[in-house]
Amino acid sequence: MIKTMKAMVLTGHGGMERYEWHEDWPMPEPGPMEALVKVGACGLNNTDVNTRSGWYSKTVNEATTGGAYEAVAEEDPSWGGRPVTFPRIQGADAVGVVVAVGEGGDPALIGKRVMGDAWQRDWSDPLNREKAGYFGSEFDGGFAEYTKTDVRNLAVIESDLTDAELATFTCSYTTAEGMLTKAKVTSSDTVLVTGASGGVGGALVQLARRRGARVIAMASESKHGDVAKLGPDLILPRAPENLRAALDGEKVTVVADIVGGPYWPRVIDILEPGGRYTCSGAIAGPIVEFDLRTFYLRDLTFTGSTVTPHQVFCDVVGYIERGEIRPALAATYPLKELPKAQQAFIDKKHVGNIVVVP
């Protein structure tokens, strides 16, 4: 019986030097109601970058850079709400094959290809956000040859897509679907998506279109050709000087934002009265200028979105199996080259998701 595996291990907050490559890391053993999964591919996300760098700490107020910060409060919460302990194997978007199950797990899962809900729940109280943690953050994830998770988090996936293609979905698409669900987006809405060339931004474009909404995507002009493949109705530059003029009469009822930063007041200013703003990121900076008069005089609704119900993950799996959404796979790298892959992700030279393969 194999006892060790290859893994990329994060040893603490900081730069890329905090990653260590191991070829003899202890293989996880599935406990009660857990499954051991041989990882076929695992996607990269901003969560991996921000957890490694310590950006979630309240001592940090700048844009996501991917670099180390001078001061990180270790007691500050991670994306999942609790401090990260080290060493940690990151990677939320693991796709693979079940090779063993612990006590209480269904043996029929063995040999099945699966995707996992990244939110790890207390299944005696599954809707309790205080008891939820994130795969690859509070729990070891998929940047390794093997990983384990609760069998109730897994979905058997029936799809012709490759493991690498499937590994683009979990974090980005459940995050995006959670945002759109909270904002109650319907076919009567016009949705403005910031950062549309990224993983979550591209997912927002596809999922809002799936709901029948009109979609306006914002992205760097060099990436407009690739963003167009996702199907938005209109594409604007990343940060037009006069956003209202650039919209040319479009009436935006929902802003789905993952960017934040100094441009933030402009996307709020163009919301129609009664409009909704939903957010699950602030890559351009978490501190924004907020005019409360715009908020209350226009009867706006703001929602933050992090912990998504398990049903959202199940819905996304269904969309994949029915071909209603498609992967945006930008590049694959060997797991051993994770720092190189993450730097490419930070540099944003690609449109879509980057995946590592053990």
Summarize the structure in short.
It is built from 10 helices and 17 strands.
Protein model, in words:
It is an enzyme of class 1 (oxidoreductase). GO terms for molecular function: crotonyl-CoA reductase activity; NADPH binding; oxidoreductase activity, acting on NAD(P)H; zinc ion binding. The protein is α/β, with parallel strands linked by helices and 358 residues long. It folds into 2 domains: 196 residues, Alpha-Beta Complex (Quinone Oxidoreductase, Chain A, domain 1); 134 residues, NAD(P)-binding Rossmann-like Domain (Rossmann fold). The protein has 10 helices and 17 strands. The mean pLDDT is 93.
Question: Helices, strands, pairings?
Answer:
Elements: E1 4-10, E2 19-26, E3 34-43, H1 46-53, E4 93-101, E5 113-116, E6 119-120, E7 133-134, E8 146-150, E9 154-156, H2 163-166, H3 170-182, E10 190-193, H4 199-210, E11 214-218, H5 224-228, E12 234-236, H6 243-247, E13 252-257, H7 264-269, E14 271-279, H8 292-297, E15 301-304, H9 310-321, E16 329-334, H10 338-347, E17 353-357
Parallel strand pairs: 10-11, 10-13, 11-12, 13-14, 14-15, 16-17
Antiparallel strand pairs: 1-2, 3-4, 3-8, 3-17, 4-5, 5-9, 6-7
Helix pairs in contact: 3-4
Secondary-structure-based class equals alpha/beta
State the domain count: 2
DSSP strand count = 17
How far apart lie the N and C ends? 19 Å
Radius of gyration: 20 Å
The helix content is 10-25%
Q: Which regions are unreliable across 5 or more consecutive residues at pLDDT < 50?
A: none
Keywords: NADP, Oxidoreductase
GO molecular function: crotonyl-CoA reductase activity; NADPH binding; oxidoreductase activity, acting on NAD(P)H; zinc ion binding
EC number: 1.3.1.86
Pfam family, one: ADH_zinc_N
